[in-house]
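Quarterly update from the structural biology core.
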Amino acid sequence: MNKSQRVNAFLGKCLKTLIKNEVTAEFINQRNIDCGGLAVSGYFDETERVIRIGAKRSDWFPLFLHEYCHFCQWKEGKFTDLDDIEDLDDWYKPDCLYDYETAEQLTRLYQKVELDCEKRVVRLIRKHKLPIDVEDYIRQANAYVYLYNLALEKKQWIGKGPSGSKKLKGLSPPTFQRDYRVCPADFRKYALRYCFPKDK
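Predicted structure, tokenized:
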């Protein structure tokens, strides 16, 4: 099979699994989509039982894999303890009622969830020989997990994600790390300029 056929074949398997579990997948003809007032590239919502992807972008397939792996986490009952705690998204809103310490605890939990998800994606890529550069994906995944630190510090969600910046991915390590609490210095310096809108 060529690259396109491998993507379509695996996508078909994923969609069958979603249907079997009464979850829908929506590919929206936009680069970013709204998720609770935040502009994101995609998300999985276990309450609505839907995966939504901003499909007007070149990396729509790796993005789908990421959200599909969040579905897999939910299906396996992993990280269900997050259902009963504050939503980290609230931290990025002006009317947030909880303090920095709570936001930091939530950030560490979300980083743990995202790292588990990213590792799942890499396992799928390798197992099914999907046409995605693994090192590039891991660099991007690491950048994404690190950016939670800066979102916590800036009290705002990421304006630009790492997928569109070769430089940002180049400043991110090519292997998964044990600790994501501190960003590499060069990565942090560039990410603060690239990923976050200027302060008003």
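The mean pLDDT is 92.
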